[in-house]
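Please decode residue identities from the backbone states below.
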């Protein structure tokens, strides 16, 4: 399986580590000066995490080749993962070039966070049916989720192949049956952030306490089961179905109508930034990041061994 990485910034470099750790060949390109050296240094820094997660036979950072143009990167590729800047004009121009240069059977996959495939797929004159979304969650070399979605012209076969590819490299892909701005996971995060900012603005709790409300509360279970299964297991013997008949459910829906919509104006931005600085004052930032990543790796290992956690 030959893969191409187009754009080797934060996300492209992390995909490169992921593919190399699964024993795949990677051909990468990025127009930034010094991009190859930066990419190789980033992969070297991420490699201990890849080792700790387990390498596939043949996994080797030396299987990375860096080339000057997107055309050279994709000319022999089976899978192309695009990670260029988040601008529609850049994606349209790039996908037209990738489509012209890649073998007809290659999948052309974009990591885009906010642009829909239908917005740039039309720039592909040859095989728009193999253009689709494969949106990772940062950092892609650690987080299993990949959101897969087609545009108006994407074939069901391309979607199936992308889902199978991501599953095959140990990712957890989900299929979005419709295109929606921001996809699924970021929209769920956005809903939570909106209320977190609203609670700070309303003076309900400090930034540190709102962080604690998730990190020491529901966030612990959300790492194990999603919102619906958590609700089902909290619903008593009748589960989620019975829950909707209980008075607590009407109160929950009443709470939805009470949630705030908020704009982060300079005053609110300063309050939140000062709150975060106060939280960090008691901790060493570098050690915090190290411990976060080590704990995440341990959690991923535990989850992989827990066969009945979907
Ligand atoms: N950062 C995130 O958390 C995140 C998460 C998921 C998806 N994404 C998506 O991934 C993509 C890349 O985001 P990023 O955060 O890695 O950005 P980034 O700025 O770190 O990297 C973009 C890279 O693209 C390169 N580039 C510029 N023009 C190019 C071109 N014509 N062809 C190829 N490469 C080109 C740049 O030199 C740079 O290295 C975006 O579409 C973004 O929406 C980002």
């Amino acid at each position: 399986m030959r893969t191409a990485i187009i754009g080797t910034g934060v996300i492209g470099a992390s995909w490169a580590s992921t593919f190399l750790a699964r024993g795949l060949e990677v051909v990468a390109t990025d127009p930034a000066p010094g991009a190859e050296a930066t990419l190789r240094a980033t992969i070297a820094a991420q490699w201990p995490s890849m080792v700790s997660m387990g390498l596939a036979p043949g996994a080797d950072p030396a299987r990375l080749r860096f080339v000057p143009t997107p055309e050279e990167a994709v000319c022999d590729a089976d899978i192309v993962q695009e990670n260029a800047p988040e601008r529609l004009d850049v994606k349209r121009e790039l996908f037209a070039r990738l489509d012209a240069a890649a073998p007809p059977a290659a999948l052309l996959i974009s990591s885009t966070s906010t642009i829909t495939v239908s917005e740039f797929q039309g720039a592909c004159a040859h095989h728009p049916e193999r253009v689709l979304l494969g949106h990772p969650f940062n950092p892609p070399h650690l987080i299993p989720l990949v959101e897969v979605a087609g545009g108006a012209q994407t074939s069901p076969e391309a979607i199936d192949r992308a889902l199978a590819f991501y599953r095959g490299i140990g990712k957890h892909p989900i299929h979005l049956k419709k295109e929606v701005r921001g996809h699924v996971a970021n929209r769920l995060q956005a809903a939570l952030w909106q209320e977190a900012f609203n609670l700070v603005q309303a003076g309900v709790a400090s930034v540190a306490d709102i962080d604690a409300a998730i990190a020491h509360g529901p966030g612990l279970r959300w790492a194990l089961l999603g919102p619906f299964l958590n609700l089902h297991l909290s619903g008593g013997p009748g589960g989620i179905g019975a829950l909707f008949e209980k008075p607590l459910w009407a109160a929950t829906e009443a709470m939805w109508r009470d949630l705030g919509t908020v704009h982060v104006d300079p005053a609110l931005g300063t309050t939140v930034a000062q709150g975060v600085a106060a939280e960090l004052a008691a901790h060493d930032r570098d050690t915090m990041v190290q411990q976060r990543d080590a704990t995440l790796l341990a959690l991923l290992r535990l989850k992989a061994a827990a066969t009945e956690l979907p």
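Observation: Residues 2-176 form a domain with the Rossmann fold fold (CATH 3.40.50.720).
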